[in-house]
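[job 4417] fold queue: 2 targets
>>> target A
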Amino acid sequence: MRLVNDLKSIEPLFHLRSSIAPLKEMPRKHISTICNGPFHVTLRNINQEWHQLSMDEVWVIFERWLYLTKHAFHLQIHNFVLMNNHYHMMLSTPEKNLSDAMMYFHREVSRDLNRFGNRINRNFSGPFFKSQLLHTHNFLNCYKYVYQNPLRAGLVSRAEDYKYSTLSGILGLQKLIVPVEYDYLLFDGKVEETLDWINSEILEENLESFRGALRKPQFKLRRDPVTRKPNILESHLI
């Protein structure tokens, strides 16, 4: 846990880098600035490698730069889950600045992962993947999909027990630095019922359909290949 304590003591460095430097990256396709979301965003580690640091240490790095990036770019973070070799996040960008925000976030996280992990290589596999969630129904299903990742991976028996997720923090199960938006799904309804829904199994065929839709810049479910009718997830929760 020494590195966790070290990370918590780097406030001077943290504030020094909070002045947003010019974003100099290799050329890549720029995300459209027309839309403000909400988006699902994910990015994998290079070669799908696990992090060099412990998950506790990686979590500290991610949550600190999520905090800064949210305020620097005026993001609205809806949820975030850190896995061993990738992450998932749902967010909105009122200032239509998703590309700049994510480029900054990934650059600074990568610097700290290298600094504290004694690395010099790239950490991430390339450009992040985003999908704009065009309808409330898509948002609800994505919310469950993101929070259920650790459960599907067999890391916990309940999604809310996973340490590296904003879900456990907003439920008060651990301290949360990531400034997420008010969770109306949990707190404007019945918390236990919502948690049971998050933890309920997703059928494999629905899971594959949903993942396929998330690979598109704008979330789009394929029609039933046999009947050509709209996908069942257009009107049902996963």
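>>> target B
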Amino acid sequence: MTEQEGGSSEVTGPFRRILLISAGASHSVALLSGNVICSWGRGEDGQLGHGDAEDRLSPTQLGTLDGHQIVSITCGADHTTAYSDSLLQVYSWGWGDFGRLGHGNSSDLFIPQPIKALQGVRIRQIACGDSHCLAVTLDGEVQSWGRNQNGQLGLGTTEDSLVPQRIQAFQGVRIKMVAAGAEHTAAVTESGELYGWGWGRYGNLGLGDRNDRLVPEKVSFTHGEKMVIVACGWRHTIAVSSAGGLYTYGWSKYGQLGHGDFEDHLTPYKLEALRDCFISQISGGWRHTMALTSDGKLYGWGWNKFGQVGVGDNVDRCSPAHVKFPNDQAHFFTVAQNMKVVQIACGWRHTLAVTERQNMFSWGRGTNGQLGHGESVDRNLPKIIEALSVDGSGGQHIESSTVDPSSGKSWVSLSERYAVVPGETGQSVVSDGGNGNDLHPRRKCSTFGAKFSYCWYRMEEVLEPHSLGEEDLVSAIICKFAAFCVWDAWPLYVPLSCFWFGIC
């Protein structure tokens, strides 16, 4: 442990896996194995959760949620949520205007607080937009709260809601996932139907017009394709079909729809440039879009003023551009497959990505330190976040911050570290001891689409999942249960994507 300026310190030790990432307007959050949450970037409204309004230029551990067994993290524009599966509790913090924190008022919060209205509810997924949030329950119901001036809560009114309310329009419909834009919302049902509601001025609801909708309305697809993933940018929407096809619609002034022009689309339009790719993950920024293919290739397009597309310049792109890592970082990837990306997240003006080797990269706007590089510099190419990456110089090193709610002060404490040992597959397996060779669990598989199946292994509470495709891709190791943004069934959530994530 080494002392730094301001009384903070760095915690070094064996590596923690990066399980989930999320990005807001100007802040970033990561969930690591060992139940560690790190946040960095803009802190003015308390969105980092460290008990103060200070920016953090490097990933800093959020000590107030230690021991809460968090399985989900989600950033809104200037607020953050987390969900504990063991405690059945949703937490929120940050800017509270319009009731976006769900606590019955509009007050800001600088440390995580439980949302009482959701206590005891099993949550499948949480999505946050600019000023509103939604939660999908395990039963497929949707709760929404926050700003509602354009009907984005789906409650049939334009009144803000300071606490979560059930969307009655989905009575009898089981929702699988939701996505939130600035003032609009989208949802995918378990049967593959797509819905949109809220602000529709740019066609971002996909309903063929520019009108708002106060309640969810079904989006039509001429070929009857089933949708499995949806994401929202500020004023545009992205969806992926069960066949891996990518559709975009809404605002395209900066080329964020990716169709080679700057024309808005009022209905879902298939992205021809990626027709031959099987899309596994998508993310929408303020005016840019990122898509990840099943073989780990990353593409970006749209607004690029701050380099958030990641292609080495600041020129907008109206068609998908392949994001490549700089040559000076090539030594991080001694095996070709380790360059595969397994997670992506778009902030308003910045982008985050995690590779299969467990290196985390960021690029785009860096004014508030949201890139996590210890500085306030923009980047137009992916740059490794040293503090969180297996190949960071000096190893993984995370600042640890604990908050005393009574004083509002924060201080640094040493974090518990988990050992990482080689597994039988050649990947790293998190273990509490031993050499990792005593794991002989049972194997189970489930299919997804025409190309992929998901397999995992059970040994008491230890799962070692594999994502098997044409190249036998190997994904992240998880323990206890999977915790990805799109789940399919309890208790082993089957994600509608090509990679597993979870809690160790």
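[job 4417] complete. Note on B: Confidence is low (pLDDT under 50) at residues 1-12, 327-338, 404-504.
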